[in-house]
Design brief:
By secondary structure, the chain is mainly beta. The chain has one domain. Helix content is about 10%, strand content about 35%. The chain has one helix at about 65-75, and strands at about 1-10, 10-15, 35-40, 40-45, 45, 50, 60, 65. A hairpin with a 2-residue loop joins strand 7 and strand 8 (about 65). The longest helix has 7 residues, at about 65-75.
Length: about 80
């Protein structure tokens, strides 16, 4: 059982989750490593959100691009 401690206003709280494990990150769409980023390229009314690891991400400023959107941003 995973428990966390929080302190607020001189009070201490314990939160324990039974039978619930933290979600594992999706694998990188290119190499299969655990993803750490999602693509910020446009898709429909939102963003692409393709999962990627740090090595497979093309970062421009604060924006992360997958391989497809990286190529589109070059033109």
């Amino acid at each position: 059982m995973a428990c966390e401690t929080f302190e607020e206003n001189a009070s201490r709280y314990f939160v324990c989750l039974r039978g619930v494990s933290p979600a594992k990150p999706k694998p990188c769409a290119y190499c299969g490593k655990p993803s750490t980023r999602l693509c910020d390229g446009p898709k429909g009314n939102g963003t692409c959100d393709r999962p990627m690891c740090d090595e497979c991400t093309k970062r421009v400023g604060d924006t992360d691009y997958c391989h497809k959107h990286q190529q589109q941003s070059l033109f």
